[in-house]
Every structure is written in C-alpha cells, then in structure tokens.
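Following up on my earlier thread - several people asked me to post the actual chain instead of describing it. Fair enough. Here it is, all 737 residues.
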Amino acid sequence: MFIAPKTAPDGASHPNRREALVIGSALVGGALLVGCSPADIMGSGAPKSDFGPFGPFVKVAADGSVTVMNKHQEMGQGNHAGLAAIVAEEMDADWSTVKVEHSAANAKIYANSLMGVQGTGGSTAIANSWMQLRKVGASARAMFVKAAADTWKVPEAEIKVKDGVVSHASGKSAHFGDLLEAASKVTPPKDPALKDPKDFTLIGSDRVRRKDSLAKSTGQAKYTQDVYLPDMLTAVVAHAPKFGGKLKSFDATEALKVAGVKDVFKIATGVAVVATGVHAARKGRDALKIEWDDSKAETRSTPEMIEDYRKIASGAVTPSDDKWAPFIAKGEVGKLDGADVLKTSFDFPYLAHATMEPMNCVAQVDGSKCKLTYGAQGHSLDQMAAATVVLNLPGAIEIETLFAGGSFGRRSSWDSDYVVEAVQIAKHVGKFRPVKLVWTREDDMAGGHYRPMAHHDVAVKTDADGYPVAWRHRLVIQSFAKASPMMASMMVKNNVDATSVEGVMGSPYLEATKAVDAQVFTPHNPVTTLWWRSVGATHAAPVMEHTIDMLAAKAKIDPVTYRREMYRRAGKSAERHLAVLNLAVEKSGWDQPLKDGWTRGVAVHESFGSVVANVCEVKIEGGEPKVRRVVVAVDCGVAIAKDQIAAQMEGGTCYGLSAAMFGQVTLNKGAPVETNFDTYRVLRHNEAPKVETYIIASANPPSGVGEPGTPVIMASVPNAIFAATGKPVTSFPIVKA
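Reply from S.P.:
Thanks for posting it. Predicted structure:
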C-alpha cells in the first residue's frame, strides 16, 4: 500500500522515518507499490510546480522566443536540437529564437514514456517524445491562433502561423510575444490537430542544427567540473583495488597532515577524503594506509575467466550458481556434426565506457534535504538511491541537470554508484555545504561498470545450397540487470536478461532458420557491469554477421547475395534490412573491385528500432587493419535532424571501431590492468575513417540513432579482414596489446 506523505506549506512532501523506509525498501527491492506506477513512486515528494500556460515543456517569453524543456540528458548526442525541432515544427515557431533547457527532475511529469521513469537511454529520447512534443507544440499553436481570432474577431480557420508570427488575410499580424497575455488565458485543447508530415517545413530540413555548439565551443557550456559554489569542498574516494574487495582497516594519520585535507572517513564503498581542492584530496588519499579484505573479491585473471566461459559454453563444466536459460526454441536442432555444419566461437572482453568527462557530482545535504548538481542521466534512479541515504521521498531530491561530457551508458548505473557516494559524503559534512565528488580517470576505469565479457558458441547446419536449417547458439555473459532486484523485475524474464541476448534474439537470420536452439548462461562474479553504447548488440552483431560471412564463404556465395537470400527467407520482418543493405551496397560500389590490397566488408544489424547497414574498406598494414572509408545506410523512421543523424552514425562508427580494434579491460588476479589511455588504447584522429551516411526516407515514427551505428562497424571490419586473409576474426579486440 502506498503511504501518502505529509504535505508542508511549501508544497513539498516530507515523510517521517517509517514512510521513507517503506517506500525506499519497496524501490530497492523492486516491488511495485499497489496502485502506483513507477513514475508515481519515484516522483513522490516532488514540490508542486506552477508551470506557465503552455505546460511543463514550453515557455514563451515576452519577446516571443520559445524555450523547450528537455526532460532528457544532453551528453553530446545532440537531442536538444531534435526535441526542440519537434515542438517548433508543430508550433510554427521561429527556429532561430528557439532555446532549450534541461528540465527539473520529476518522474510524474517528465517520465520517459518507454521506461516509466525519468531517464535517458536506449536511444529513446526522440522516440518517446515524438508524439508527446508534437502535441505540446500543436497545443501551444492552437492557443495563439484562438487568441488572435478572438482579438481580431475573425474565424480561427483563417489564421496562419509562420516563424512565430500569427497573421490574417486582412493584414493583421502579431508576434507570439504580442499575443502572450491573451494566449495564456486560452484553455489548451485536449486533442490538438497535428500537421500532416508532408507539410513539415522544419523537420527533416538542413536548418535543424545543434543549439549548443557555440556554448560548447566557447567554453560557456556548464559541466559538473565547472561548478564552484561558495564554501565548496572536494572529495575523492579510495576504492578496493579488486572487485568485491572490502575495507578492513585504515590509518588516516598522514592523510590528515596534508594541507587542505579537512576530513577522512569510511563510507560504504571505501574511504572518503574531503579537502579544499582536488589536488589536496588526491594527495591525502595517496597518504592513506589501507588494508583491504579480499576474501570475497574476484581473484582470477582474464585468461582464466575466458577459459571458464568456454568450458561452460561447451558443457565441460556446469557451475552451480545459475542454469542455462532458453531464449529461442523452435524446431528440432538435433546433433550438429558433419561436413554441412559450421562450428565457431567468439570471445569478447570487458570494455570501459571511456567518457571524455569522468564521473563527478556536487551534492548538498542537510538532514533529509538533498540537492544534486551534475550531468544526470538516470534522474529517477539517482533520486531513488539518494532518497534511501537521506531518508526522504525520491521526488523530494532536487536535481539540477548540467551538460555531460559523454556517457555511453555509464552515467545511468543501476546502483547510482558515484551519486550515492557523493550523497553519503555530503551527509557526513552536513549543513547543506556543497561537496564535489571527483572520480579520476583511473577511478572510473579501475572501479568501472564495464560492458560485460562474453563468449558465444555457435553451430550451424546448412542445406544443399549452403543456407542454415538448424542453428545452435550458446551465450555466456554476466547480467548487470540481475545484480539489481529492481532492474531484474523490469528486464529479466524466465531467467533471461533481455539486454544480454538482444541482437541474437530477433535476428532475421534465425527467423529464416527452421530449427533454432539458443540459450544463455549468466555467471556471477564481483566485477560490476553495465549497459554500454548499443548494449547486447556490441557482441551480437559481430557474432551473427561474421557467422553469416563464414557461411557464405563455405558455400562460395558472395556475402551480399547470401544476405539477400536470408532476408528473402525471413520474409516481411527483414524488408528494412534488405533496403538498407541495397542502399549501402549501391553507394559503396560493392561490385567495383578495389586495388592495392584494399578489401570490403559488409554488415547489417537492427537495434533500438533502427536498421543500419555498413560497408567498410580495409587494408592490412604492418599487421594491423586500417579502415579508410565506411558507407552507412540507416532506416530510423522520420529523420528529424539529418545532420545530427549523420553525426551520430559517424560518432557511433568511430566508437565501435575503437572498441573492436583496441578496446579491452583485463584483470590481473582480480585487479584491472588498463586504467588510463596509456594502456586502454582508443582510436586516434588519424585512424578515423571517412564516414558517409545515407538515410532511408520513411514515414514511420522516429527510432534510435545514438547507438545503432556502433555495433555494425564492429561486424563489418572483421568481415573485411576475413575477405582479405581468409581467417575468421573470433577474438576481440582485433589488435591485441
């Protein structure tokens, strides 16, 4: 039963200790309180907000300029522009004067409609806001139209709006600002008329460009590291060097002698050092004498862990900590042996997110009152986690959202790790004094939440023409969703973590195969894992696409021709795959031979509702692959901001290429080896290929673009290498350290 919190005169809800504990335990445990949605629960305690006449998403100033409130995080992906364009299109606002601001954190108002809580991820920012913001813009436009019609005593049907100017054939006209007072008195329509997409003048045009480029280019954009508040302290945390390690004891004597160090104390995840600045805090941490308890820590090294995964997949060992979970079962696969069977396996390492801006957060706490200032990505998750620390309702946790210097999934962790640390430290400091928690690059990479390590074991039986008739698939991978009861309740069904198997599940190749037996095993270990840009597709795409190339080679069929036949067999579900494949092949000149040792690789993959095809040109030089050109074709529904879609395909391509070529975090007896860019190699500027993007015209609702470009390059490059050398690429990264 939901406990109604007491409402104070300030409009905020303040629970007593019992109320906070009941709600907190329900949230942490993953239970849904009877009669309440996740947004209701996580928004509980939020102060009452007096939005303007146009609602919580739009503000119109006296000068007629329009400000769109972005409920999502802008972390480099450019959603500010796309979201604002949706409103501006339906509103017929002057695009040159449209502005964007991050909204408050309030799940009741700003929940992601595809998640049920406020947060940014899964390439859903545009997709979940599409109809919502269209209606917001259309409603605001209708209010100005009615205001003008009433003022001028003319029919509403005769009113026109263009670039923020309302006009009538009689010659009368007014800017939004001129009609603001009258429009604010109009009751918003419940079901405003939306434009026919053929009448769009802004959406899909070259005018839709980023709204934050100038501020970011000139240093005016504000990030967490830019926050300096009066009397602010800086904190760092000493974490266990091995995953699963716990604090046994510490001596702060020498640390407290460091100039600027104000306090040293234990928190749940280690030892916090609070000082007047970053340098003093880090110097104080270096002076600590700490003894760690590794009795429950991970103590294996990477080669041992990979070998364990292989044994599990082959059936050589059967661990007692979990069981195999089927996620695709159709037909009778039977025994797979003989000349008509292809057997292969793939190994994938842990990957760091390697964001440009490491984790940080400014927290202020006084009793149950808490404010967070940082690049929030998982607003509701972080509110929930902070609320359990200060014993308040989730919605009462105030969040001021800033720009974030990249995330790729890292800033929205299931345990709100660095946010919780900031709140715990600020609670200890108290008196609402601001404390900026700073994670160094090494802190983040060594104590990270990685893309899970994975192993795929595949066996495929083919027909007389060389096409699959039976497919056995075994996947061994950690599940970060299972690490959290709440996440498990949302993402795990029949013991299958959907994020682990996506890309294998739903593959058109398996749709085209009569008999399929696909199962996943999720081993448990202390290494913390998390979604990573394009999540399960990062290992599924290379496996599925490279297996298809190996099958094509075995049958002596061109890989493009082979895919076309597979899509034909898959039927209607693969029509979009065929369309992007044909476009990429056409634009890349697939049928035209390359010279001087260059070869091409092709791959097609669907993720986050979008389908992407990719043709790359690769040459082996000095033992390493060099990629010079990548042709991308994408079907992402309505293309709101074509320039930004191209930018995301370019960024996703380089990010995926970097990981496929060089990315890996290895463990030495449980301790991460790669903790900075000197050992965690990333793609350099001179190694980045030219990326050409072609967009399929579509009237379907928008789908994701932030992530779908990443997994395809991770598949096409191995295919190009295979074409050049005849040797499959089954172990990543391609270039070993």
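The first strand starts at residue 6 and ends at 7. That should answer part of your original question.
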